[in-house]
From TrEMBL:
Originating organism: Streptomyces populi
Keyword Oxidoreductase: yes
Superkingdom, taxonomy of origin: Bacteria
Record has Flavoprotein as a keyword: yes
GO cellular component: plasma membrane
Residue stretches making up the Acyl-CoA oxidase/dehydrogenase middle domain: 114-212
Family according to the record: Belongs to the acyl-CoA dehydrogenase family.
The name this protein goes by in its record: Acyl-CoA dehydrogenase
Length: 394
């Protein structure tokens, strides 16, 4: 595959780099930063329909922006769920009214989104969701659903304006049947409760979200009632698109830190450790070329040109790699990797250092977003055509 950056792409790179250098002075608040990106025209570069995003950019320029953003160490995006997950899904499956209502605020950085997929009993196996959405017949606003249930591991739920929720709209349905994809406003006191999930370090990166009769408009069902599984799977394909290349920029920086530590501690003189580090470097290069090949093979990540199993292959590649990188990070440091802050009295709740964070949180990489087991099942059944796994007891 010929995937190269031309002169116009490099000019775009210089523009992006200069803008980031100028606007990253100080530490902008996350919501303010989203609005600044919107004013600069940097949200919605890859949206395929005109009039909703800020500027149009082909695939190579989307990659350029993602790489420069990562290299500039710009703040984590509060709006990435709306821009990179919801928006492509609406463009592919939403009604004209839904696109007009929801895409412009995302492009302006004015509305933030969270994802209501995983549940306590349905994390990696998303088809097991039990949250329900039923038509309101109890005197509520006409043309609405009432949503009841619980979602978990919901990033950004505490600051999001909206949540896209996968819920069961057909009573008695099972697995991937009878599900719908609903757009739900989060500002519903008494009907939606967000509880931070407190970790051992005292920090909270995720949330639980409880829906107690929360209201969603019937016009905010994407793809039609009962078509939620197809819409949800399409969204997961977008999740593993251009943004994976920016993710790999961060991976390369983490690998570089591990290599420097190995050289400083002398761990790289051990031939077994050295072979392990070289293997991580080679795998990261392989991931990059696989991502470029996949993106170049289809206009839509995970589409027919890229291969139906491409998103699952990508997830398997980076999930296991990142976990192994975390293991290498503590290996090359030795016993020092287990030591906490020097001044415990001033560090409660204590903060993990970069290597400790990589090691501990890397353990989840092969689980969230669809576990390795689920990805292998998808590849086996939907790509290779192997017999389906028996479910439940005979």
């Amino acid at each position: 595959m010929d995937f190269a950056f031309g002169p116009e792409d490099e000019a775009f790179r210089r523009e992006a780099r200069a803008w980031l250098q100028e606007h990253l002075a100080g530490t902008p608040a996350r919501r303010d930063w989203e609005r600044e990106l919107g004013r600069g025209g940097w949200i919605g570069l890859g949206w395929t329909e005109g009039g909703y995003g800020n500027r149009r950019a082909d695939l190579t320029r989307q990659v350029v922006w993602a790489e420069e953003y990562a290299r500039a160490k710009a703040p984590p995006r509060s709006g990435h769920i709306g821009e990179n997950l919801l928006a492509p899904t609406l463009i592919a499956h939403g009604s004209p009214e839904q696109k007009r209502r929801f895409l412009p605020p995302v492009a302006r950085g004015a509305e933030l989104w969270c994802q209501g997929y995983s549940e306590p009993g349905a994390g990696s196996d998303l088809a097991g969701v039990r949250t329900t959405a039923v038509r309101d017949t109890g005197g509520g606003p006409p043309g609405t659903y009432r949503i009841t249930g619980q979602k978990i591991w919901t990033s950004l739920a505490h600051e999001a304006d909206w949540c896209f929720v996968l819920a069961r709209t057909e009573p008695g349905s099972t697995r991937h049947h009878g599900l719908s994809f609903l757009l739900v406003p989060m500002d519903q006191p008494g009907r939606i409760e967000v509880r931070p999930i407190r970790q051992l370090t005292g920090t909270s990166d995720f949330n639980e979200v409880f829906f107690d009769g929360a209201v969603a408009a019937a016009g905010h069902v994407v793809g039609g009632e009962g078509d939620g599984w197809r819409v949800a799977m399409s969204l997961l394909g977008f999740e593993r698109g251009v943004s994976t290349l920016a993710q790999q920029i961060g991976f390369a920086e983490e690998l570089g830190r591990v290599l420097r530590t190995a050289a400083a501690t002398g761990a790289d003189r051990d031939p077994v450790v050295r072979e392990r580090l070289v293997g991580l470097w080679a795998e990261l290069r392989t991931m990059r070329w696989n991502a470029l090949r996949t993106l170049g093979g289809s206009g839509t990540p995970g589409g027919a040109g890229a291969g139906a199993g491409a998103p699952s292959v990508a997830k398997l590649l980076w999930g296991g790699w990142h976990r192994r990188l975390g293991e290498a990070a503590v290996l090359v440091r030795g016993a020092a990797a287990a030591v906490g802050p020097a001044d415990w009295s001033a560090a409660l709740p204590y903060e993990l250092d970069a290597d400790q964070h990589l090691f501990l949180f890397g353990r989840a990489d092969t689980i969230y977003g669809g576990s390795d087991e689920i990805q292998r099942t998808i590849i086996a059944e939907r790509v290779l055509g192997l017999p389906k796994e028996p479910r439940g007891r005979p």
